[in-house]
Each structure stands twice: as structure tokens, then as C-alpha cells.
Specification:
The structure is a single chain. This protein is an alpha/beta fold. It has 3 domains: 215 residues, MFS general substrate transporter like domains (Growth Hormone, Chain: A), CATH 1.20.1250; 38 residues, Spermidine Synthase, Chain: A, domain 2, CATH 2.30.140.10; 243 residues, Vaccinia Virus protein VP39 (Rossmann fold, 3-Layer(aba) Sandwich). It has 19 helices and 11 strands. A 7-stranded mixed sheet has the order 7-6-5-8-9-11-10, with helices on both faces. A 4-stranded antiparallel sheet has the order 1-2-3-4. β2 and β3 form a beta hairpin. α4 crosses α6, α4 packs parallel to α9 and α6 packs across α8. It is elongated.
Amino acid sequence: MGRAPLLYLNVFVIATCGLVYELLAATLASYVLGDSVTQFSLIIGIYLSAMGVGSWLSAYLDKDLALRFLDVELGVALVGGLSAPLLFLGFARLDWFPVLLYGKVFLIGALVGLELPLLMRILREQVEFKYLVARVLSFDYLGALLASLVFPLFFVPRLGLVRTSLVFGLVNAAVALWGSYLLAPLVGRRVIGVRVRCAVVAVILVAGLIKADRLTTLSEDELFADEIVHAETTPYQRIVVTRGRAGFNLFLNGNLQFASADEYRYHEALTHPAMALAAETGVPRRVLILGGGDGLALREVLKWPGVETVTLVDLDPSMTRLAKNYPPLRALNGGALEDPRVTVVNEDAMVWIARGPERYDVALLDFPDPNSFALGKLYTRSFYQRLAKRLAPGGAIAVQATSPLFARRSFWCVVRTMEAAGLFVRPYHVAVPSFGVWGFALARHTPFVPPAAPPQALALRFLNADAMAALFALPADLGPVEVEVNRLDNQALVRAYEAEWQKWQ
């Protein structure tokens, strides 16, 4: 019994690391493949089935169980620890990247599946069977709980995916080294070789930690055509800024958010139709921007002389700090976030919109595309219903609604969902060279005719009377299609978005 408590703690560490690798692989799939729902489900299934294969294979190991257990632990340390660096490097370079991704997930799952049966067989002479099973599985499930908490809330936000992967590889290597002392009587003279292998694996992983930034840069250099001039990992996303001959570009989780060369077309189209519509019933004084942490939609709003207050709600404080402090972006948005009329709120818009009695003359929704359930909730009927309650009489809403050309069903799903929330909606579109044809939806509480033109005094670069009229003229290939309303309990928009954009990747 003397050795058993320490080995139970060993099981706890093993289970924790195994679940972290599962979550790590799912997160990598979401980040690099951009297909979060399907990939997460597929990877969890592959991982769990691989654990079953590993458990089945353990029956064929009859000799030197302690030594085999330690070697498997080192295998988890090396394969799992290097998973993030290799996957990031492979994504940009390999046509058969999915084979690498799923193969790594399967290999890690099989190794983790081998561990528990081997450890239970090692302990069977020391602990009564019913207590052995109960305690080992208890630590396994507790490890799963700890992993699901510390992985997304602590490690990835502070270390990033590459460092988190390497750190947990080191933890497994340390567990193997510790186990070499606990199991030394069972391993015999070969324990020295185990410790040497532990040291070699640890050196490889420490070298990876030292070069983590370089590894990340190497992978991102292949993903982005232009030079990377700023990159950071936040608790919510990966922010990358690149610079080329035409200007600079902002990417979130690998997806282009704007190009400085032509972003004005997008942001003028998002902002001024709603402002002009609200101005038909009175000067728009109170404006709400949800998303838009880059400050570019805010820049357009502040061109209207009657605006008194603007509330900008963006989840990620790192994004709004970048908009304030990064010189190229600050110059592009004209220092808009430092305007005394502006209040910045770093909260989840879904939660924030349900609080407070304030009403707004204009609401602009500049969220990223709905490529995950976390973003899809911001395009649901319940969200638009909450938003409608915060809209003043005569007020207007404008929503970015992805491309009506590349993702036609997704675009019309946004429109129909807004209508299901009780709003009257007019879809419109604009050509942005960096994105192609892009779609928006303009809405208010009552039927309306789209505004004819923005005020000439604003001196806009793109919008004039002719351009405003063209926004609302939809050609046949952008016309309505049959779609399902997006609700919290079905996330129809996320499924449609995944299916449509996958064809263009």
C-alpha cells in the first residue's frame, strides 16, 4: 500500500495531460482548419476510439509492464508535447495536413489508452480490485475536469498553444522520471536507460520552449503572404498584423478582418446607411457598436456632428488596446477610441445587451463571421430580440452578414433571423477588393425605404448618392433562398456557414 497513493497521483497527472492533448488537438483544428464544429466532434471521436484501441493493445503486453508503462508515458510526452509545433508548421506546408492532424490525435489517444490498463495491472497485487478500479477511474475523471478548466482558462491565454503543448509534454516527461523511481524495483537495471530517455525527451521539449516564438513565426510566415509586424495570443483569439506594399492587414485566428487599402468601403457601407436612416427621424445622438474593436466603424460614426455618445462593446481588451496604441491602426482609425464621447466596454455582447435601460438611435454589429457556436449566438433570433429592445423609436440597425455570393444561404439566414425577431430588414451589399462581394442588413422597427444618400458634408471616400442606391440593388445570383431561422438551440447559421465556406478553402 505504501506505493499506491503516489501512483494514484501519477494517474491524476496522466489523465490531466491526456485530456489536455485532446482539447489541444480540437483547438488546433478549429484554429488552422477554421471548421470548429465538425472538427471538434470528429477529433473527440477519433481520440476516444484511439483510447479504446490502446486499451485493447495493452492485453498483448505480458512482460516488463512497469518498463512499458514508463516508455508509453515518454511517448505521450514527446508526441503530445510536439503536437502543436508540428501541426502549425505542417498546416502551411503539407497538402496532406488532415492525415497528420488525425494521425497525431489517434496516436496520442492510443498511448493514453495504454496507460491506465498497464498501471492497473501493475497495482493489482497491492490494492483490492474494487478499490483499484474505483480510485484509478476517480482520478482519471478528476483529471479530465481539471484539464477542461486549466487548459482554456489559464494555460493557453498565458502561454499560447505552442508553449502549452510543450509544457504539458514536460509534465509527462517529469511523471515518467518520477515513475522510474517509484517503479525501480520492478524495472531493475534498465531503469538507468529510462532516465536517460527522460532526459533526452526533456531536452528536446525545453529546446522547443526556448524556440517557441521562432516556431510560431515560421508557421505564420507560411500562412500569411506579407511580413508579420505584430502578433499576440489573447484569452480569446490570435491577433496578427501583416504589412505589405498596399498597407497593413489585420487577422483574427487566421481570418482577414480588414485590409487598410480598402477597409473604408466596408466601414462606410456598414455605418452610413444606418446613420442616414436614423437621421430621417432626428439627429442620431446615441450610437452603439458591438464588435468593431479596431475602431474603424467608430471612426465613421464620429464623422456625424450630432453624435453625443458612442458605446463600443468588444469582448477582447487586447483588441481595443491595439486600436489605441498600435501606431498604424491608431492612425487609420484617427484615434477614435480616445474621443471623449466614446465609452469602451470589454464584455460579451450577448450578456451585456440584456442589461441596462439605455436606448440607442443607431446600433452597428461588426462581429466576426459566425464560424463557431460562440459567435453564432450573436446572430440568433434571441440576440436580435434583445437588441431590438435597446433601439430607440426611429432608430436603425446595421449588421455585417458575410458574403451573399460565397455564402448565400448564410447571408439570407441572417436576414430571415432578424425578421423573425420582429424587425423590418433590407439586405444590401458592397464590393470590397480584399473580400469580394460582402453583405449587410439594414433594419428598424417599422417598414422603411433605404436612405437616398449620406450627407455631402461628410466627404466620404466611397459612398455618394449613386453608390448608396447601388448597395440595395441585389443581382439575381444574390437573391433570396430558402433558409432556416438561426436560434440558440439549432445554430443553423453556423452549419450553413461551415458548409458554404468549406467549398472556397
